[in-house]
Amino acid sequence: MSANFEYRNSFTQRSCLVLDTGILFLFFILPLVACPLWGQAGQKKHLDPSDYHLWGQTHLDRISPDENWASYTMTYENGNDTLFVQNMTNNKIYSFPRGENSVFTKNSFFICQMAAEISVLNLKTASQETIRSVKRFEYCNETGNLIVLIQTADKKNNLKIWSLATGTVKEIQNVTDFSLSPSGRQLVYAVSSKDQLTVNLIDLKNYQPPKTIVSNNKNHYISFTWQSKGEAFAFLSQPDQGIITSLFYYTLKEKKLYEFNTETRSDFPDQNAIVYDPYYKIRISDDLRNVFFAIKKQAATSSTSEKSIVEIWNTNDQWIYPYNVRMGNFANSLKIALWHPHSDLFTPVSTAEIPKIMLTGNLQNAVLFNPKDYEPQFRDSGPSDFYIMNLMTFEKKVFLKKQFRHSRSPLPSPTGKFITYFKEENWWVYDVLLQTHTNLTAKIGVKFKSKNRTLVPESTCGSPGWSVNDKEILIYDEFDIWAVAPDGNNFRRLTRGRESKIIFRIAEFPGRLGLNKIYDGIKAEVYDLKDSLMLRAEGADGKTGYFKWKTASGAEPIVYGDFYVDELTYAEKKGKLFFRQQKYDVPPQLMFAAGKGKIIPFYKSNPQHQKYFWGYSELFDYQNSKKQNLKGVLLYPANYDPAKKYPMIVKIYELQSQELHLYSNPTWQNESGFNPTLFTSEGYFVLLPDIVYEKENPGISATDCAISATQKMLDSGKINPGQIGLMGHSWGGYETSFIVSQTNLFSAAVPSGAITDLNSFYFTVGQSSGKPDMWRFEDEEWNMGKTPFEAPQSYARNSPLVQAEKVTIPLLLWTGKDDKQVDTHQSKEYYLALRRLGKKSVMLLYPNEGHVIIDPSAQKDITVRILQWFDYFLKNEKTSQWITDSMM
């Protein structure tokens, strides 16, 4: 796709807002085949810092149920953020400054919030209404009602129920909280009026006078929670500034209210209270028998307890003192309790002895464990014994001994029949009813571990979830997706990625943020394999895309090519599939696939891009001295001239080839001071090599890879040998500070947030975690596998501080003074070593900044200084006095 096409296309889109889809498609395609010289009349210019503010970020938001409209955002560093709504047929666009929390309704309305206002746009008539003083709102798709909580001038809250179809509005005064049922048909709300506080229920479909569920004159009602099918709800009762005294439970079919009152029960633990916690919410089982809620031991008063004036650190403690304070005070931590309303039985499920809890999919069993079981140990996390508790009989027993926990292992199945876990290089399943363990993957004959986590040599590829009714578990290997029956006898490979070196993974659900958690576990996803699966694909050649998988046809591409795509978004019927696409030299654009390979762009961000010279990216292969085949990315200078040789910046970390197609906005606001576009616009090549590590030799192997990749670029004849700089942050800072002691290939370097002394860092307590950093040296990051006592030579030969005497080039060190990820003393130690050795270096310390720079003015400062540093030593531009002073 030519630069000329991009510029002209952007202009055409903005000018022709009423073209039909067919004509619009021709406008997008014709410049490719008929007008290759469009836009060349306009002279391009070099990127100037005064223009950086023109760039923004675009993201897909939502798709209308009829798939005719899409919403998306443009955000800028100056805060001029806008939510747009665009018609896919005629390109009609509406804008909402600082719009968020958007909703498309099935009857052609678009709703979004702007601070304390919500805007309601009729997409058919273009009429628009604004509701002010909004605290929050919800929309009921089944009834077409918009429910809005509004604060009045006298600071009271009124609830308005607005029918978008008829325009009628019903108002309820003095509402303190409300909640819609999962279907949206039922509305429960609390009212505080004079001396009366009530909970009421309304059926929004067959609107009748509200039913009062409970009423009192002193306690507020909070934390409304529905059962997943909307057949029951629960809520809490709390006096003003007091502890929660009651849990209420109401079933719609029985029309019956149950109360759990802590003040009248003899079985409720002493000195405990019910608590509200957003991460440990009330849960109701589908069979309506189990209600889970959080309780916590109340802090002792000052009259009964004395604060210790000393910290006591014992070498035989399971966890060291600060980590135990942060994570391990299980006696006083929040617990999950269970109440059977119909029988009125109650029991704490998690306890101080076994404090962590996961629930099976049907909420009929609990999986319990204690992360301290096998402490002290010196990895990131240790193994545990896992118990299963029958939540009808409250009996529990161990079903897994000394099992390591991964993000999705152990993982209860959606129906609660099975619990899967990864052990001994295989996936296993525990049958809850039969109480048997089965190895699921031993017969398949492929590995289910690979390199898939940053700075971890190898880990499990994972399991995204199960098919309907727990018929098959879905499992990833390095490339493919497998479906395996829970008895282990039947399995099938759903994709064919291994043959083409394409990694297939199930695409994230649109709008899903983070993992779907239930207490200390993850809720397994359910996939209907009779329907289609949306797959994310990444090729070894740098290509990315999305595929649609069906049982009959397998995985077929929706979009796949030499670019980067993400943010797959779609409506329920999946007729049109929307996504974002970009390349290093093509700003992100929003597109949709309309079937049969027809891809239609509908929004292009940053059209000003075409006015400026820009670099481009190239994927390359190289070998290190071990003859390992590796990849890297080379970014070309803007307005590249093949007849010239250029300076180059080598930026290192670990695997970076996946950044081949990432577009980078020009900006001073960079958390680590690195922005590839700024370097390429200033006439630098930028090299991003992939690096692999040899056990017990992280520094040596990083040096090998960095030198091999750099030498390949030198052999190409594009690079000036005396003008190569090296930089890296955090782990990349460690690599940089070590590599400069092993080679004279580089002329200047910037190691930042760096670990420089392996021995002292091994014995450092992480300020953010409270945990000893020695876990990083076992089988992660440094991958030493041994202690400094067992392998002193390995630690010495890979430690930048030990090798500091060999440094011959000027170094710019920087760190945040409040860095809790990598102790600031690591940079200070290296600085002092260089100072004592008489080496030329500068250290920058940024007050009130952590591992990365957050303050925009500090971000600009470090970005500018890094550019000046390399300009000074690689381009011989001796204009920065602060550097000249340091070199005297």
Overall radius of gyration = 30 Å
Counting DSSP H or I runs of 4 or more residues, the number of helices is 12
How far apart lie the N and C ends? 51 Å
What ranges have pLDDT less than 50 throughout 5 or more consecutive residues?
1-41
Going across the major beta sheet, what is the strand order?
A: 51-52-54-53-55-56-57-58
User: What structural class do helix, strand and pairing data support?
Assistant: mainly beta
Number of strands: 58
Strand-residue fraction?
A: 35-45%
Q: How much helix is in the residues?
A: 10-25%
Taken from the alpha-carbon principal axes, the silhouette is globular
What is the overall pLDDT average?
Answer: 92
Characterize the largest beta sheet: strand count, sense, and whether it forms a barrel. 8 strands, mixed
Account of the 3D structure:
- By secondary structure, the protein is mainly beta.
- It is built from twelve helices and 58 strands.
- Strand 9 and strand 10 form a beta hairpin.
- It starts with a helix and ends with a helix.
- The N terminus is likely disordered.
Task: Report a brief summary of the structure.
14% of the residues lie in helices and 37% in strands. By secondary structure, it is mainly beta. The longest helix is centred in the C-terminal third of the chain and has 19 residues, at 856-874.
What attributes does this structure have?
eight-stranded mixed sheet; 888 residues; mainly beta; globular; disordered N terminus; 12 helices; 37% strand
